């Protein structure tokens, strides 16, 4: 069986149902773009060293992104 990867325009951002620690936002981002979920989480945590609304963006994404 071959693994089907739809083109970027057909991918839909969603929260992960299987790869989640809190709400599945970062796991969903990783699933959508084919990235390593651990790397996405490490980058998110490292981003707290920079000024910005990272935590607020995560909470907003939690409510906006549908479950996948």
Automatic annotation (TrEMBL):
Domain Phage shock protein PspC N-terminal: 11-67
Bilayer topology: Single-pass membrane protein
Keyword field contains Transmembrane: yes
Transmembrane segments: 42-65
Pfam families in the cross-refs: PspC
Subcellular location: Cell membrane
Gene Ontology CC: plasma membrane
InterPro entries with a match to the protein in the record: Phageshock_PspC_N (IPR007168), PspC (IPR052027)
Keyword Repeat: no
Keyword terms: Cell membrane, Membrane, Transmembrane, Transmembrane helix
Annotated protein name in UniProt: Phage shock protein PspC N-terminal domain-containing protein
Organism: Corynebacterium marinum DSM 44953
